[in-house]
Design goal:
globular; 7 helices; about 190 residues; alpha/beta; Rossmann fold
Amino acid sequence: MVKQLFFYGGSFNPPHISHVFAANYLTSIFPDALTLVAPILRHAYHKKLPCFETRYQLLKLAFQDMPRVTISRIEQELNLPNSRTIACIHELKIRYPGAKIYIVIGSDLVVDLPNWKNADELHEHAEFFVFPRPGYPYESPLQTPELVDVSSSMLRERIASGQIELCRGLIPKRVLDYIVEHGLYS
């Protein structure tokens, strides 16, 4: 029986070291918890994304050495017209009855939480576990360390402009190799 579940959803476009760090931190501090990393199926704000399967594969590569992290297809299984965290949380409550659910986010998203679909209901069914990001200070009760100053959009821009070398060390090697091999973001 799962007692604690960390739901880490996002576009992961592409996954980078801060994503890996956050999941690794959770599995280190909460070794008995389940950490689900879930790529969104469709972006809530209609941003263009590589197909779900590509991002799912990138996540499998990014987290393959972390056996206590599970890459989830929950959004694909729900197949909603837009990404809705609340739908995932309702489904997780069915799949993991009695588990305390946390939604993992970076502090840059805290200001936007009131705009999320069913934001008040989200707070009723889950707690937010917030990782501080540079430029977005956040006081965490656990003294959670600040994430590396990297963003997927910055990495996509570097790749598109041919600056692959500037991505090394910011994207897991297997992920970067896959991106280069398949011409993603070029």
